[in-house]
Specification:
200 residues, alpha+beta, disordered N terminus
């Protein structure tokens, strides 16, 4: 649609100039507005690589149960593959224990993951629509932690709404749950992931 409009632009302007004064022709009547382009948000691919296990390659939505034999604090690496057909840079933002719908206080805003962790996905790939990035996070004993990651070309910078895209709907979201046992090998209840007071 956009290509057709651009191709017809000179023809329409020529026809218009033949019967109108030239004072309007040096003004852009309809600009190249990004809001007019079809909405095609990024997509996080939920497909496990062949031969990998849940703990080493967790998919979005999975509950990662750390073995009692693991070293605490425990470091979990997340690997994310994103499909996006436009050759523009993407931004990634992430939090632990953040409320999905609202952020009204320090208890529901969670802890933001540093931007530098996601630097590998910011640039557009040389070829193809698929981009992959990994990031490690550290978890302490006796916790059940939610990990949220958002991918979009542009996010709002409004406090409490930093996970919201500038263009509504132009965002991909993934969430994981990481359950870490106590030093005595006792796991917290899974419903502790719903209560931010249990893991902040």
């Amino acid at each position: 649609m956009g290509r057709v409009a651009k191709a017809l632009g000179p023809i329409l302007l020529s026809a218009f100039s033949a019967q109108s004064s030239g004072c309007l022709l040096d003004r852009r009547i309809v600009g190249e507005d990004e809001w007019l382009t079809p909405l095609s948000p990024p997509v996080i691919v939920a497909q496990r690589r062949a031969g990998t296990m849940t703990l080493t390659d967790p998919l979005p939505g999975e509950i990662i149960v750390v073995p009692t034999s693991a070293t605490i604090p425990f470091i979990q690496t997340f690997r994310v593959t994103v499909f996006y057909e436009f050759p523009v840079a993407l931004r990634v933002r992430g939090w632990t224990n953040r409320n999905l719908d609202t952020c009204i206080s320090g208890r529901t805003c969670g802890v933001e993951i540093a931007d530098g962790v996601f630097s590998s996905i910011l640039n557009a790939p040389d070829a193809g629509p698929t981009r992959t990035f990994s990031f490690p996070l550290q978890f302490v004993a006796s916790t059940c932690t939610r990990v949220d990651v958002y991918v979009s070309p542009r996010f709002l910078d409004t406090p409490g709404q930093q996970h919201v895209p500038v263009r509504p709907g132009e965002v991909a979201h993934a969430r994981w749950y990481v359950v870490v046992p106590s030093i005595n090998g006792i796991y917290p209840p899974l419903d502790a992931c719903k209560d931010v007071t249990m893991s902040m």
